[in-house]
């Protein structure tokens, strides 16, 4: 991750958060005015909804720019820093019931 992409991502995130907060405040203010005027409650204005959607899109791009680079997701990449003993321990094949016939219980007289 380069520092310029991280800086751009942080700026985009800050702008989108402020835009979302502004759209929420505008929506609340519009709702308060409608309640004070005894108007029926309607959807927020188109510009408020557009601001919220644009803030969401800008937030998505900011998060993509600010995130670190993706790591490889392959078996070869995983085995590059592990040993075969760590990966091939096979605890699922351990036999723990092999002494059953010597334990006292049902079926013995």
Description:
The protein has helices at 3-36, 46-66, 75-79, 84-87. With 109 residues, it is mostly helical. The chain is built from four helices and no strands. The protein is elongated and about 85 Å long. 5% of the residues are buried. Helix 1 (3-36) packs antiparallel against helix 2 (46-66). It has a domain at 3-66. The mean pLDDT is 83. Keywords: Membrane, Transmembrane, Transmembrane helix. It is found in: Endomembrane system. One of its GO terms (cellular component) is endomembrane system.
Q: How are the secondary structure elements laid out?
A:
Blueprint: H1 3-36, H2 46-66, H3 75-79, H4 84-87
Membrane topology: Multi-pass membrane protein
Subcellular location: Endomembrane system
Transmembrane segments: 42-66
Strand count: 0
Shape: elongated
Strand content: under 5%
Radius of gyration: 30 Å
The first-to-last residue Cα distance is: 72 Å
Q: Which structural class do you get from the secondary structure elements? A: mainly alpha
Mean of all residue-level pLDDT scores: 83
The major beta sheet can be summarized as: none
Low-confidence blocks of residues: none
Continuous helix count: 4
Helix content: 55-70%
């Amino acid at each position: 991750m380069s520092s310029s992409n991280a800086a751009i991502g942080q700026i985009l995130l800050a702008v989108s958060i402020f835009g979302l907060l502004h759209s929420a405040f505008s929506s609340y203010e519009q709702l308060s005015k409608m309640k004070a005027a005894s108007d029926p409650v309607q959807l927020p204005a188109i510009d408020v909804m557009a601001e919220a959607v644009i803030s969401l899109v800008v937030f998505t791009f900011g998060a993509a720019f600010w995130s670190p680079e993706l790591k490889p997701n392959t078996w070869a990449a995983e085995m590059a820093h592990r040993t075969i003993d760590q990966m091939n321990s096979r605890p699922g094949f351990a036999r723990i019931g092999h002494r059953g016939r010597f334990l006292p219980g049902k079926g013995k007289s």
